[in-house]
Specification:
With about 160 residues, the chain is of the alpha+beta class. It has 7 helices and 4 strands; from the N terminus they run ααααβααβββα. The protein has a 4-stranded mixed sheet, covered by helices on one side. Helix 2 (about 25-35) packs antiparallel against helix 3. The longest helix has 18 residues, at about 145-160. The model has no long low-confidence stretch (mean pLDDT about 95).
Length: about 160
């Protein structure tokens, strides 16, 4: 069975688990994203068909909430804190350096190799350790642009060794 068909079948099962109720659209989107790490165009169309609503309505809900992603995420999620303490202690150069290292442009947040996704968060709750970033939920305190790139290079080496 093709990957697209498996995904569509899984999306249909999720929608069915909510009895195809339009009032459960957000919960359905959350479950689909949890399953596939993002909301594909195909998933949005399938949800709309199953719920009997327009694709535009499903898309508008998916794009309204920041927690939903229409882009496939990388294997490793990098989050840079942009809260006041981190910003004052220069988190922006860390973000800029990582974007350049990953060759991201425009609104793209995931590297071409699918290994990393770069995101910003308003606060990671570790202000005393600023500037802070997380990789897959692990906190990395008092970061510098150079330290951030070194961490990513270490992850790349481990991934290459695992292949």
């Amino acid at each position: 069975m093709k990957k697209e068909n498996r995904q569509a079948d899984a999306v249909r099962r999720i929608v069915d688990s909510y009895d195809c109720q339009q009032s459960n659209l957000i919960a359905i989107l959350q479950d689909v994203q949890n399953e596939f790490k993002y909301l594909s165009e195909e998933a949005l169309v399938t949800i709309a068909e199953k719920l009997g609503v327009s694709t535009a309505k499903v898309y508008s809900v998916a794009t309204f909430y920041e927690n939903f992603s229409l882009e496939a995420k990388g294997k490793h999620i990098i989050r840079i804190c942009t809260g006041t303490a981190c910003h004052v202690r220069k988190s922006q150069p860390i973000y800029d350096t990582i974007r350049e290292y990953l060759a991201l442009s425009g609104k793209r947040r995931t590297s071409d190799d699918g290994l990393f996704t770069l995101e910003t968060v308003a606060c990671l709750g570790a202000c005393g350790l600023a500037p802070v970033m997380t990789i897959d939920g692990e906190v990395h305190p008092k970061m510098t642009p150079e330290d951030a790139v070194a961490l990513l290079e270490d992850i790349r080496k481990k991934e290459d060794a695992a292949v």
